[in-house]
Amino acid sequence: MANHARNSRGIEDKRSALVSGQRRAYSHSDQIGGTKRREADGRWVDRGPEPAPERPKPVSQLSLGEFIGHNIGYILSAVAVVVIGLLLMFGVRACSDQPSPDKAGTTTEPANPDYYVSPYDWSKLDTSTDHYAYVVDGKVKSSLGVDVAEYQKDIDWKAVAADGIDFAIIRLGYRGSTEGDIYVDEQYYDNLEGAKAAGLDVGVYFFSQATTPEEAREEANFVLKTLDGTSLVYPVAFDWERVSGIGETRTSGVISTDLSGIADAFCDTIEASGYRSIVYGNPRDLIHYDETVFDGRHIWWAEYDTIEPLHYRDISMWQYSSSGTVEGIPGTVDMNLDLSDVL
Length: 343
Fold this sequence. Notes:
The chain has 343 residues and is of the alpha/beta class. It has helices at residues 2-31, 64-96, 157-162, 188-197, 213-227, 256-272, 283-286; strands at residues 36-38, 44-46, 125-126, 133-136, 139-140, 143-148, 167-175, 182-184, 201-208, 236-240, 277-281, 298-302, 317-324, 333-338.
C-alpha cells in the first residue's frame, strides 16, 4: 500500500507540472498580446495582431444612407412625435370648430361658417371719424343712426340731426330681469316726439326678458298698445339678452330651443299688426336662434371695435360702437349703420 501511495503521488505531481506548464504557456501568450495560438500537435504559432476595433466615421463624413442607417431608431421616434403632435393639434382645432354648448347645455351652430359669403365689401367702409359710412363709387350707401334709452337723459334732437344723424331707434320699454314686470322707458315719449320733430326716421326696441312664448306675446302686445298706431319708418326690434352681474335672473334657465320660440312669438305678434320686426343681438346672442327665426326678417348685428364685422348671416343694420359721441346727446351713445340699401 505504501508503494501504491508513492506511485499515486508521482502521477499527481506530473499532472500538476503539465497543467502548470500549460498555464504558463497561455500566460506567456497573453503577456505578448495574444499573438500566438497552440496547434493540435502542441506547437505554438504566430496568429498575428488582433484587429483594432472599427471606429465610427465622423457624422460629417457619413453619406445620407449611412446616416439614416445609423440613426433610424431616433428618426422613427422623432417622426412619431411629430405625427402625434399634429393629430392632437388638428383634433383640438376640429373640436373647437364644433357647435359649442350654451349655458343650459344645448348646442349652437359655429359662427361665420365657411359657406357664407358676405354681400358687403368692407374695404368701402369709411372709418375716418366715429361716424362711419359705407361708400360705393363716391356715394354714401348707408344711413347713420343712434339707439337711445332713459340713460341718455334729455336729448337735444335738433342738434343730433345737425350732427349728421339720420335715424333713431328708441327704447319703448323693458321687462325686469328678476321680478318680470313690464315698464315703459321713462324717456320714450319725449324721445319719440323730439326725434320725429327733428326730421329723423324712427324705430323702437323692447328689451325682453321673456322665458316663454306666452310672455313674449305679452311683451309684443304691450309694445303695440304703447305705440297706439304710431307710424314708424324703422322696425320694432326684439332685444333679448342675458343679464349678468346681478346673480340668478329669471332668464338663467332659458335654452336655445326655448329662445327661438320666444323670438318667433314676439315677432309674429308685431308683424300681425302691420309693423316690421327685426332681431337684435351680438354674435353670442344670435347664435342661439334657429335659422327659422330669421326667415323673412332683418338682423340688427352688434359688434364693436372692428372695421369688418364677422357676421355669418346677411345683416341690415350694424351697431358698431357703444361709445359714440353725437352733438345733443350727453355722454356716449350707441352708433348704428343702416346697410339695407346695399343688400
